[in-house]
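Replying to the earlier thread about multi-chain prediction with a worked example.

Input:
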Amino acid sequence: MAASVPARPLEGRRLLLGVTGGIAAYKAALLVRLFKKAGAEVQVLMTPDATRFITPLTLGTLSEREVLIEIFPENADGSWTKHVELGLWADLFVVAPATAQTVAKLAHGFCDTMLTATALAARCPLLICPAMDHDMYLHPATRANLERLRSYGYEVMEAAHGELASGLVGEGRLPEPEAIFDRVVAMLAGETKTAAGPLGGRHVLITAGPTREALDPVRYLTNHSTGTMGFALAEAAARRGARVTLVAGPTALPTPPGVTRVDVVTAEEMHAAVQAHRDADLVIGAAAVSDFAPEAVSPSKIKKTGDEMVLRLRPTPDILAALGREKRPGQVLVGFALETDDGPANARRKLEAKNLDWIVLNDPKEPGAGFGPGTNRVTLLARDGTVEDLPRMPKRAVAEAILDRVATAFSPSTAG
Ligand code: C5P
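Result:
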């Protein structure tokens, strides 16, 4: 066959698939099929609660192996060390969906079921795919548990944004089986960590576009941002081998190849989406976030009365400043400053106030700079006091230039 992607990319591979008790457990059936069709041997491990959502018969039939649940099953054949054997047998262990409960157990080394005991015994790489309600997902306990899993070297595939079983819309959806499958293939091919260049394998989070703050069902406050600069940065970072999450306000731009996009509308939504991915190694805030939102959204269209209209506005969260307050060692934060007056001094003040490493200054009043699809002319200010004026260039070239500078923070020679 001439195709460059092998038809059975998991031929001969041994996978453990851990399934836990969330509504997304039904997607495990599709995952088993994808893994099997790609040539893998699949052993399914379910938590007891997962069996309320999908039957062991379904997953056992699709995987052609008996599903394992209890660590001490009633019909045990005397081999209580199965969790150890399986932990040695597997090339990769993927837990999808991983509920908040299982994430917590894995983070703290519990081993009360076959799934958790095998995870503790496993020598292979682990991929954890959390799926749960939005608020549970964003709870500091869950965020801390996921961070802990990462500190053990586990890969965490952040949940997607979308409709949840609770009827809410937000972060917490299990990524589509195809996306999980692709990540498994990439992990086994060793691609995630070895992509060339200092951004290879890094998680890069970029905000882009405007936000919209509703006044009533038909009107909103926004700005002229098109999202072009942020999308160009996302595309360039993905080309450099980074794992890119792009949190985008309303824009008509297409998603760049290889980029995971999270669409949001308001500043609050952008803040929540960014918080959900704040583990990123590099965060670039290119969005033009509305600084104010109407204090109250009128449930019906505001009528004209002929009188003066007074709007009361409240401040929105400063998304980058919030990240700056919690910046981890080694994390790099980059902001944009759109200044019409006294640019360099204002930009430097923002860099310091928001605890950023770089700030990209541009002037919307200057021809060929600021908002719009065309070119930009920016000045880069670094935390160490360096200032660099770049010439006017297409936004894609500006994106490459910004990444060239910022990536030095991740080069082995300069990382400290
Ligand atoms: O404070 P100012 O809005 O000028 O700062 C601009 C930078 O801060 C940009 O990088 C922008 O994306 C980010 N920002 C933010 N949240 C806000 C306002 C701005 O992340 N509410």
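The chain is about 30% helix and 20% strand.

Feel free to reuse this layout for your own posts.
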